[in-house]
C-alpha cells in the first residue's frame, strides 16, 4: 500500500502513524501542503501512484481544499472532503447531528450582535459562545452576564473575518468536571478517554487530565450514529455526560489528534488505525489487480 500523508507540521500523532505504516512495510510519501500547487486537471508529481491519502493538515482551509483536490484526482482520501467540510464547521456539525436524531446541545446561530444577544438571553446565563471554525478550545467563552455577552460580541464583530460574524450560541451543559473523547473508525470505537479539569473547558490541549473511559452500549451507539451523520471515516467524537444520566454529542473531529488517548489507554491506537486503513484500502487493491 502506498500512502500519502498530507501535513504542514509533523507532530507526535503523525510520527506514531508513520512509524506504524513503515513497520508494516507500507510505502509512505510525506506531502507538505505548504509546498504544493494543485492543478485543476493533473495531480502534483508527489501524488503519483498513491493508493490512499491521509489528511493530517493542521489548518482547516488547507484540509478542506486539499481533500477536494484529492477526490478530483480520483485518489481515496481519509477523511472524505464532505466529512471534512461538515466536521470543520460547528454549525454544519450541529445540523448533521440534529438531522440524524443524535442528542446534541441546543444551539442557535445568529448573524448580528443584536440577534446574538437575543439568542443568549433566550438560553439564559451561563451559556456558551463558540467560533464556528476552531479547535483546542480556542476563542470559546462561557457567558455569565449580559455585560459579558455584549463585550464578547463587540470584540468578535470587530475581528474582521466573516466567520467571527457568525455567532454560534449554545446551551451550557451541566456536565461533571469532564468530557469524553472516543476515537472511532467508521463508527467503531477504537479507544476512549475522559478528560477532566477544574476549568469548564476540558480539552487535553488546555491541560486536562486524561484517563481511560470504559465504553458502555449507549456511548457506542451514539458514536456510530454521530459517525454516520457526518459521513464516517477516522473521527474523534466528543460527548458530555448530562445531569439526567445520558450523553450529548457536542463535536466531531475529522483530523483527530490521538497522542493523549494513546497514552491514556491500553489500546495501541496507531496500530488499530492502520489495521482499519488496511481493511478499507487493500481489498480494493486486490480487486483491481484481479480485474487487471
Report on the architecture of this protein.
A five-stranded antiparallel beta sheet has the order 11-10-9-12-13, sandwiched between helices. A four-stranded parallel beta sheet has the order 2-1-3-4, with helices on both faces. A four-stranded antiparallel beta sheet has the order 5-8-6-7, sandwiched between helices. With 292 residues, it is an alpha+beta fold. Helices cover 37% and strands 24% of the residues. 38% of the residues are buried. Strand 3, helix 2 and strand 4 form a beta-alpha-beta unit. Helix 1 crosses helix 9 (269-291) and helix 4 (90-99) crosses helix 7. The model has no long low-confidence stretch (mean pLDDT 91). It has helices at 12-23, 60-72, 81-87, 90-99, 113-123, 146-157, 217-230, 259-264, 269-291, and strands at residues 2-7, 27-32, 52-55, 77-78, 107-110, 127-130, 141-143, 167-171, 178-185, 188-196, 209-212, 234-241, 247-253. It contains nine helices and 13 strands. The radius of gyration is 20 Å and the shape is globular.
Amino acid at each position: 500500500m502506498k500512502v500519502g500523508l498530507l501535513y504542514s507540521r509533523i507532530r507526535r500523532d503523525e510520527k506514531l502513524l508513520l512509524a506504524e505504516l513503515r513497520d508494516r512495510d507500507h510505502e509512505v510519501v510525506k506531502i507538505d501542503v505548504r509546498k504544493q500547487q494543485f492543478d485543476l486537471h493533473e495531480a502534483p508529481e508527489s501524488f503519483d501512484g498513491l493508493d490512499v491519502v491521509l489528511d493530517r493538515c493542521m489548518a482547516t482551509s488547507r484540509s478542506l481544499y486539499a481533500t477536494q483536490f484529492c477526490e478530483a484526482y480520483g485518489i481515496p482520501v481519509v477523511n472524505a472532503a464532505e466529512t471534512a467540510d461538515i466536521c470543520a464547521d460547528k454549525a454544519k456539525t450541529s445540523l448533521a447531528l440534529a438531522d440524524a436524531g443524535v442528542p446534541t446541545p441546543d444551539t442557535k446561530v445568529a448573524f448580528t450582535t443584536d440577534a446574538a444577544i437575543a439568542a443568549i438571553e433566550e438560553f439564559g446565563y451561563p451559556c456558551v459562545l463558540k467560533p464556528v471554525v476552531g479547535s483546542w478550545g480556542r476563542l470559546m467563552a462561557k457567558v455569565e452576564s449580559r455585560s459579558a455577552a455584549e463585550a464578547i460580541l463587540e470584540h468578535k464583530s470587530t475581528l474582521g473575518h466573516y466567520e467571527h460574524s457568525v455567532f454560534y450560541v449554545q446551551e451550557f451543559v451541566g456536565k461533571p468536571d469532564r468530557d469524553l473523547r472516543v476515537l472511532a473508525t467508521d463508527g467503531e470505537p477504537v479507544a476512549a478517554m475522559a478528560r477532566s479539569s477544574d476549568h469548564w473547558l476540558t480539552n487535553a490541549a488546555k491541560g486536562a487530565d486524561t484517563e481511560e473511559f470504559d465504553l458502555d452500549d449507549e456511548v457506542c451507539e451514539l458514536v456510530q450514529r454521530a459517525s454516520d451523520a457526518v459521513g464516517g471515516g477516522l473521527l474523534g467524537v466528543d460527548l458530555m455526560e448530562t445531569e439526567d444520566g445520558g450523553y450529548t454529542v457536542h463535536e466531531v473531529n475529522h483530523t483527530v489528534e490521538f497522542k493523549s488517548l494513546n497514552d491514556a489507554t491500553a489500546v495501541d491506537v496507531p496500530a488499530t488505525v492502520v489495521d482499519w486503513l488496511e481493511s478499507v484500502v487493500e481489498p480494493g487493491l486486490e480487486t483491481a489487480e484481479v480485474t487487471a
